[in-house]
Amino acid sequence: MANILEHYKVLGINIGAGLGDVTSSYKRLCRIYHPDVNDNPESEEQMKRINIAYSALRDKLKREMAFRQRQSYPGPGRRHASHGVRAETETEANSALFSYFKAIGECDYTGAYIYLSNHDRRSISLESFINWRKSVSRLYPMREFRIKGGQPAITVSFGDGRSCIGFRFRVMISEEDIADGSVNSGEVEKAVIYENGTWKVFLGYQSVGDLTRGFDERFEARRERDITKRWEEYNSGIYPDYNMLSLTGMRKAVLKELYRQKRFGGTLTFAAISVKTGSVRGAGEDELLRSAARTIVGALRETDIPTYAGDGVFAMLLVELRKKNAEEIVGRLIEKIRKNAGPQLGGKARIEYDIMSWSGQGPADIDALNTVLRKFRKKM
């Protein structure tokens, strides 16, 4: 065993690599160390070690492949009804699929990538696969899975004329929705194919876009649903006098938007407007604040989040808007607040604002909004 491990090390490949990986690595090393292209005196000795490792692993993998093929294709023994495949091979395919999902559940995305078919790995790089899985796990971390088999063997055909035998499995997956803490369960189908002497999970991805499309559509559908139901979902957090979220209600809304920004990137801008009549609070100030609330809610986009934080302070989360643009929008809002409040009340009002932007650097949560609000409370 020690010699075999050393052979993998010499060729610079992982234990369990297929024959195609062994051959590719051998050819790559030949272009580096072959004496015809490398004048280093040590290259000849290194090339000998490479040849020995390649021959040993090639023979080992060919023997294993022949053994597995004798098991997988028609021959003596118990066979699968539809394809002449030995029933024991379904257990091996199931094991490969289990290892793939186990690695995902443990956030070992490099380990999961190893179990993907060569077709998938040619279409999707390791870096793209890891980034995709990290994005999914931020919003929908997998809690448990259960594999169901028992389906007939299948033949998977590729565009270049190749084909492999395989099995299709149904996988029950339970995952958490980070935004609201709920746990959802669903069933997906996964195919496992036999190629290069091993069982590999076949997802059929053609590109990075193909990889992420299902998740993006799923996320955007949920986001649209969240936008239309925002007020109902956070009804307990609405400030009744102004039909705005309270600071408590805004916490959930901000955190949801943060998870979206971490997935897709973008800018979050927190803005706050302090509205005061400059006199003792009374009917005049209540009228001014109600007018300001109507103005703000009417002027912001549907994706933005307005809040009444108390003490005459309105807070806003402006989505996909940088600080420079936010200052322009807030300036127009203040003009509208004065105009809508009427000349007598608007002229007496003292209105101030502050803005803070976050564009993916460092933590951004409800504390960022509280920082803006604390500046006002020091002034008031």
Secondary structure elements and their pairing?
Elements: H1 2-11, H2 19-33, H3 43-72, H4 88-105, H5 109-114, H6 118-123, H7 126-139, E1 142-148, E2 153-157, E3 163-177, E4 182-195, E5 198-202, H8 208-233, E6 238-239, E7 244-245, H9 247-264, E8 268-276, H10 283-299, E9 305-310, E10 313-319, H11 323-341, H12 343-348, E11 350-358, H13 366-379
Antiparallel strand pairs: 1-3, 2-3, 3-4, 4-5, 6-7, 8-10, 8-11, 9-10
Task: Please tell me about this protein's structure.
This protein has 380 residues and is of the alpha+beta class. The protein has three domains: 2-72, Orthogonal Bundle (Helix Hairpins); 88-217, Nuclear Transport Factor 2, Chain: A (Roll), CATH 3.10.450.50; 237-379, Reverse transcriptase/Diguanylate cyclase domain (Alpha-Beta Plaits, 2-Layer Sandwich). It has 13 helices and eleven strands. The protein has helices spanning 2-11, 19-33, 43-72, 88-105, 109-114, 118-123, 126-139, 208-233, 247-264, 283-299, 323-341, 343-348, 366-379, and strands at 142-148, 153-157, 163-177, 182-195, 198-202, 238-239, 244-245, 268-276, 305-310, 313-319, 350-358. The strands form three sheets. Strands 1, 2, 3, 4 and 5 form a five-stranded antiparallel sheet that branches. Strands 9-10-8-11 form a four-stranded antiparallel sheet, with helices on both faces. A two-stranded antiparallel ribbon has the order 6-7. A hairpin with a 4-residue loop joins β6 (238-239) and β7. α7 (126-139) packs parallel to α8 (208-233). The radius of gyration is 31 Å and the shape is elongated.
